[in-house]
Specification:
This protein is an alpha/beta fold. It has ten helices and six strands. A six-stranded parallel beta sheet has the order 1-3-2-4-5-6, with helices on both faces. The radius of gyration is 18 Å and the shape is globular.
Length: 255
């Protein structure tokens, strides 16, 4: 069984006065709102893109939610983007979380991204998928467009990414939702350039460049646009040729 660090990032400020009225103004065009505490329902409703991320360190490392928001704003500077991330070890933890239930039941999130299904490395243990499926169904029932985000798999372990993706695809089929198949983009990019430092040194998590590719796939899934439009996205320590290779790989994955 994989071990994940529990990292929590929270976005979208909430402020209510003594009479229950919000004291936080709607988001400004082109802004991405971050902060601590529960999200503000009015900001979530007013935003052009309001995205709730649920995941572990594969979501939070290098701030993939924030990176996705910056990509959307790069493409559409006139749009408002609100994101919030609920950090969990596994999706089963989110299923027990009053915080998740509050966000889904009382915030009109337009999109929800779920990651962190517990999956056996050996394949000999079948962990419950019911909790993740119910999370997806609950968000979909509230009107959100829901995606499972399938990770890339462990470096050097043949078939690990495909095994994880299969689990998410089956969960999506049962919940009537979709999957952002990140591992396919990683494999396409590494087939072109095996030297690309997509992995962190632990061979499990994403490095800075891997976060860019992952966020590009999620951008395509969430917006319906080809990630090739991100070839000019400013990103540290990345040249134009590498950005084009990565955005092309992401585009082939979400096409």
């Amino acid at each position: 069984m994989r071990r994940f660090a529990l990292l929590v990032l929270c976005g979208a400020l909430c402020g209510c006065g003594p009479n229950g009225c919000s004291t936080t103004p709607p988001p400004l065009a082109g802004s991405s709102i971050t902060g601590a505490g529960p999200s503000n329902p009015e900001q979530v409703k007013a935003a052009d893109y309001s995205i709730l991320f649920v995941g572990n360190s594969h979501t939070s490392m290098h701030d993939i939610p924030g990176l996705v928001a910056r990509m959307i704003r790069h493409r559409h500077p006139e749009k408002t983007v609100v994101t919030r991330t609920l950090g969990v070890a596994f999706l089963e933890d989110a299923a027990r979380s009053p915080e998740y239930r509050e966000e889904v039941a009382n915030r009109p999130w337009k999109q929800v991204v779920l990651q962190a299904q517990k999956i056996s490395m050996s394949g000999k243990v079948e962990y419950s998928r019911a909790e993740g499926i119910e999370l997806a169904k609950a968000a979909k029932a509230r009107g959100a467009d829901v995606f499972f985000y399938a990770e890339w798999g462990l470096r050097g372990v043949d078939g690990d990414g495909a095994k994880q993706e299969k689990v998410y695809l089956e969960m999506a089929a049962e919940s009537g939702t979709r999957v952002a198949c990140v591992r396919r983009a990683w494999e396409k990019a590494l087939a072109e350039r095996p030297d690309l430092p997509l992995y962190a040194p632990d061979g499990n998590h994403q490095a800075e460049l891997g976060a860019f590719l992952t966020a590009a796939v999620l951008f395509g899934a969430l917006t319906g646009e080809s990630p090739t439009v991100l070839a000019d996205f400013p990103y540290p320590n990345t040249d134009a040729a590498t950005r084009k290779l990565l955005t092309d790989a992401a585009a082939e994955t979400v096409r």
